[in-house]
Amino acid sequence: MIWAFIFGTVLIVGIISVFYLVSRVRRFPPFRGLAEKHKLLSWLAAALPVAALATGCCILINVFSMLVVMLHLMFIWIICDLIAFIIRKITKKERGFPLEGIAAILITAAVLSVGWYNAHHVRVSSFSFTTEKSLGEPLRVVMFADSHLGITLDGDSFTKEMEKVQAQNPDIVILAGDFVDDDSEKADMLKACEALKNLKTRYGVFFIYGNHDNGYYQYRNFSSQELRDALTQNGVTVLEDESVLIDDRFYLVGRLDRTFNRAEAQSLTADLDHGKYIIMLDHQPNDYQNEADADANLVLSGHTHGGHIFPAGQIGLLLGMNDRIYGTERRGNCDFLVTSGISGWAIPFKTGTFSEICVIDITGK
Asked: Which of 70, 239, 314, 351 could form a disulfide linkage to 17, CB 3.0–4.6 angstroms apart?
């Protein structure tokens, strides 16, 4: 219900943006002159560049990106209009050439260019945690989530990013969900799985399901079983509401995504030795208190993409959809980390965050 409300709101605002942008384009001299003779024709003429922008985004990228471009342009243009209005009031000058429109277009282009770079350029982020539990030598975990194969990463570029993962000399590699998307291609999925097989680690590569991994609409050219088979055949351990004790040093507890009928966090840790360090994997960061009560020591999540498009993450936080958008938090004896993701869903811009691989160093007694 809440997603229907969100998408409905975005659609309505998107329609409003079309009318607003057409009205602003109509202020430019060629259209303004035409309006003096043919009012309706001037509106139709002003709609052409807006329609061209929307159509180009849909053809070159997708409809979601078209909405992002149009909404950014509208809101930035509104701000430029307000600034221009204030300046005219102060200087008492009449409206002349619409410089605010030129400024809005240039600023939007700059913002989205940075967003494109942030989405496609994957950085390495470092995090450190300590524990009073006996862990032996320091443990290095390399974690990433939300590759959503197909939007910014295909099989080849994903393979290239795994070189960054290997360069961190991980003891263990964790994929925290949404490895693939609803429209990922089988060829990309298979190549990405092969790249995971080539990672050299001390304890292996582990995977939990995200909300997109099973596919919402089943229109991609491979099944959920084929995904699971490709992962396991390439040496990846899939955890589905289960735990594994690694090297008698620490537990890895992998939760099913909340979109599944899954077990409660406390039931997953009830029979574990709580004297050992417990790492819990949960794709969506929205069960913090239960996970802290389950005596987990570190919970790793993705899903939010760090906000992806500002202010989407902040709105989701206000609506109670997530406990955190990005970064770390501590509750009791439990640390929480949410990554912004190595890619993101549907939209190849990140105006509210960046793409990353997380390197996590854990030090104990």
From this structure: 70
CA atoms within 13 A on the CB side of 322: 26
More confident residue, 13 or 283: 283
Note the pLDDT tens digit of each residue in 210-252: 999 987 777 789 999 999 999 999 999 999 999 999 999 999 9
Q: Which long-range contacts (CB under 8 A, 24 or more apart) does 17-20 make?
A: 17/70, 17/71, 17/73, 17/74, 18/50, 18/54, 18/70, 20/74, 20/77, 20/78
Burial class (CB in 10 A: 0-12, 13-18, 19+), 284: buried
Q: What is the CATH number of domain 123-363?
A: 3.60.21.10
Tell me the domain boundaries of the chain.
2-118, 123-363
CA 159 to chain centre: 19
How does pLDDT run across 310-325, given as a tens digit for each residue?
A: 888 888 888 788 999 9
Parallel, antiparallel, or unpaired for β 139-144 and 355-363?
Answer: antiparallel
Cβ neighbours around 274 below 10 Å, total: 14
